Amino acid sequence: MSRLRVLTILLPLTLSAAALAQGPCPTQEILGSAAMRSSDLVCIVPQVYGAGGLVGIDNGGPLTATKFHEVHFQASSINSFGPINAEIGVQLSQVPLASPVSGFIFANGVMQEATSFGPVLADRAETLGKRRIFVGASYEYFDFDKADGVNLKSFGAVFTHEEEPTICATIPSTPCLNGEPIYTNDIIATQNRIDVKVHQVTLVGTYGLSDKLDVSVALPVVDVRVAMGSNATIYNFEPPPVNHTFAPITTNPRETYISPFNAILTNSDSALGLGDLRLRSKYVAWRDAKEKSAVAVGLDLRLPTGDAYKFLGSGTWGLRPFVIYSYSARVSPHASAGFEGNGNSILAGNVTSQPVTKAHLPDVFTYSAGADASVLRWLGLSADYIGTSLLNASRIETSTFTDFIGNNHQNINTFVSTVNQANISAGAKVRPIARLLITGNVLFRLNDAGLHFKPSPLIGVSYTF
User: Fold this and answer.
1) Which of 47, 101, 381, 393 lies 20 to 30 angstroms, CA to CA, from 10?
2) 284 φ, ψ to 5°?
3) Which residues contact 382 (CB under 8 A, 6 or more apart)?
């Protein structure tokens, strides 16, 4: 075959691969081997194999160039990891905040001593009181370890080669089966670990416009840390010279070359900044004659002030009407329900496309029930069941992939369904002086639906003026 003929065949393939390499996280132009990883956390998972993805070193990846074709595992790796990335991003935007609930209630300017100090992550119907001010700050920590029951600390994923429908016809010497080159059956099997940790400080404030109406603001300051490691093994089913291999010489400090067919690749970064600002209004719509039972209605507005590319915010607005029932006494039961409608966000879309595409952030149905009690004049306890349903959200599940010669490999599949999360919140509030409260709480996830976290501690302080 003439050199011109070979160039005629290879040039379109090379250009196609270079164009595809521009897809992942388009925060910059990717130009061949000069490609650089993005510093955005939304790109940690897609770019674990490099800025170009799971392609050759001439396109910013870790693999060597191959004879007569480019290395084409990028689309498969993106399709496998994309939903994981979306699930992490979407559910980080739903991390619970400490409620802007004052531990003290005022009526006609008089503090109601015969009440409890209120819940921590849930809410009660009673409002703060006319011209009263409540301010507070809390710290929460989340360490995520599973996604839909899949262990994020150790899970398998298999990447398949793209089809090459023209090679067998244009290069007759290529070993083919059913019109496809044998090498298109090659796979890259990986064992992976993803670590996601969140430190969140929330500043809250509430002002009583009247004895029945108050308004609140909550502003989180978020520190998100994401790291990924992937141990990748190449399985070739065609003899040299077409074998896929890892490049033995690399300038990538996050790649550990073990052999031509095995390498470990890592990617990590962190981000610190403001999260999404939340505004709330709450109105007591009904109260019984004894002023014990009450029903309140309200509206939460979430503004996209957090950077979604850095997993600090949702990337879109959210509007949540809600209703609350509570009974005011030393033991105070309460229950609430709300529905948050969301707009379109990059977190639910495709950050590996060029340009980036957005999709509808899953709407969320929330509900809670529990009670808080005044044990002593200076001590209150609270416990709540908190349920969250994310509608039509990306999810993953484990599966098995059988390769060309019948060997099985651990893999993951993706699907879309409603995520029903169940949590228990248990906390205490201590009153050292006057109207100062110190809060401690632990949030426990009861099931594996969605992004699962280990027991999440909270500590906070608040004062009511």
Assistant:
1) 47
2) -80, 105
3) 116, 117, 118, 119, 120, 122, 370, 371, 372, 373, 425, 426, 427, 428, 429, 441
Asked if the structure places residue 429 within a domain, the reply is yes
R_g (Cα) of the chain, nearest Å: 27
- The DSSP output letter for 455 is -
Beta partners for residue 155, in sequence order: 192
Neighbours of 228 (CB within 10 A): 24
What angle, 0 to 180 degrees and rounded to 10, lies between the N-to-C axes of helices 74-92 and 3-21? 0
| Closest by CA position to 216, among listed 144, 276, 300 | 300
Measured in whole angstroms, the distance separating CA 156 from the mean position of its chain's CA atoms is 19
d(CA 387, CA 167): 54
pLDDT (0 to 100) of residue 109: 64
212: helix, strand or coil: coil
CB 363 within 8 A of CB 400: no
Separation of alpha carbons 212 and 355, rounded Å: 48
Q: What are phi and psi of 241, to 5 degrees?
A: -95, 15
Contact status, residue 442 vs residue 455, Cβ threshold 8 Å: yes
User: CA 202, CA 95: separation in Å to the nearest integer?
Assistant: 11
Q: Do residues 432 and 456 lie in contact, with contact meaning Cβ atoms separated by under 8 Å?
A: no
| DSSP labels, 231-244 | EEEEE--S-TTS--
The answer to whether residue 90 sits within a structural domain is: no
Distance, in Å, from the CA atom of 212 to the CA atom of 199, rounded to the nearest integer, reads: 34
Give the pLDDT score at 435. Answer: 92
pLDDT value, residue 107? 66
User: Quick one: DSSP state of residue 123?
Assistant: -
Name the DSSP class of 161: P
Q: Take residue 184 and report the two structure tokens written for it.
A: 């298109």
Euclidean distance between CA atoms 218 and 125, whole angstroms: 18
- CATH code assigned at 143: 2.40.160.40
Question: CA-CA distance, 17 to 20, in Å (whole number)?
Answer: 5
What stretches in the chain show pLDDT beneath 70? 1-35, 67-68, 70, 106-114, 250-251
